[in-house]
Amino acid sequence: MSGNDDSIVTSPSEGSLSAIEILPDQPSYVCTLSAELVAKAREELQEKPEWRLRDVQALRDMVCKDFPNLGTCLDDAFLLRFLRARKFDYDRALQLLVNYHCCRRSWPEVFTNLRPSAIKPVLESGVVTVLPHLDPEGRHVVCIRPDRWTPSNYPITENIRAIYLTLEKLIQSEETQVNGIVILADYKGVSLSKASHFGPFIAKKVIGILQDGFPIRIKAVNIINEPRIFKGIFAIIKPFLKEKIAKRFFLHGSDLSSLHHNLPPRILPEEYGGTAGKLDVSAWNELLLASEDDFLYDVSHLAPSRDSSPHDPLMSGEVDEKQCDDSLRSLKTQLYYCY
Question: What is the pLDDT of residue 147?
């Protein structure tokens, strides 16, 4: 996408997003990328249009040979997500695909009955939404506002479900597969009681999914209005972050000019010093809720046999007990100190 800041790129409408590829009996793949994005995918992702279907078939053959009981969709468009996310490295794409399924199966609190209508209260709260305009690099901006969550209304796992469904909807777009996404997290008003819900176990699971269990490229995480307590939160998160991802975190505090260096005001709502009007979550909520049929085929119900999946803490949901116990013992101390 063009880096010209003088124009606003609008997110694609619902009609421009293909139906979710985990549904069975999907049609043959037809590339929807512009010539510009085809060139970008070639340069950044090593995607060669003339070899694209050959590469997809190679990944499909590997799945059928090494994980015949994985129960995954094998459509071209679905497998292509994983190849793009791992720059067409067959082995890494296969591992990501296996992780994707195993992560879903290892956390039933999050992935059982995972569909938009089941998380409607979370969407209405505004905890997570997608801004209506793309950034200058053609990336969606996912806005997360933990202060909109009331713990007494529902558990923190409901927020995770809403974020995951948002990512599933976004990754249907080939443009997102190539460009990636940007996260804008507003920690204004996050209290000690709320922060205590995000312990080491949940932190490890969520980060494991985002880094190694979902085919999306997170290009930047912009944190704003973070209170002192965020030091404690980040202390929980950082040990699980890969160095490359950790370098993509930007802490802006209340300095909107710092935020605007990464995200121009013309794509931001007024609440963040932008000129794109008031922040309105209704448009994204309507789009996601109208996509109910996209999520009817729940791959988490297709459990792999024990001998078909590698044993890995990321996929099995296991957490090192000593590490978790040590982190839990120090968690409240860290949070109270920072608060």
Answer: 93
pLDDT in tens, 185-220: 999 988 777 877 887 889 889 999 999 999 999 999
Residue 301 DSSP label = G
Helix (H) or strand (E) holding 325: helix 321-338
**C-alpha torsion angle, residues 55, 61, 64, 65 (rounded to 10):** -130
Low-confidence ranges of the chain (pLDDT < 70): 1-27, 297-339
241 touches 202 (CB < 8 A): no
Please report the pLDDT score of residue 338 as a whole number. 43
CB 132 within 8 A of CB 11: yes
* C-alpha torsion 15→21→25→26, nearest 10: 50
Cross-strand partners of 251: 223
Judge contact between 145 and 127, C-beta under 8 A: yes
Residue 46 Cα distances to 38, 42, 52, 178, 210, angstroms: 10, 5, 10, 11, 22
d(CA 200, CA 220): 22
265 CB neighbour count, 10 Å cutoff: 17
Considering the entire predicted model, what is its pTM?
0.82
154, burial (CB in 10 Å: exposed 0-12, middle 13-18, buried 19+): middle
Identify the three-state secondary structure at position 185: strand
Write down the pLDDT at residue 297.
61
CA geometry: angle 255, 8, 12, nearest 5 deg: 115
